[in-house]
Amino acid sequence: MAHGARRTPAPPPRPDLARARDCEHCRGWGTVITRDGDHLLCAVCQPVADVSEPRQQTPSHRHTPA
């Protein structure tokens, strides 16, 4: 019996496809699928984010009062 994909509360990770282009481990996808069916970023071509330092977001536009 075929089963559909199971629902997950988190969306799959977003890889950097430019880095994944020539990776033989993930074959250019940037993600790998575990035995449990979870998507993970490829450990070979995708950099690991440093979670100890929060990201600084720059505003895309500035509002100047009139």
From TrEMBL:
Highest taxon of the lineage: Bacteria
The protein's name in its UniProt record: Small CPxCG-related zinc finger protein
UniProt source species: Streptomyces thermoviolaceus subsp. thermoviolaceus
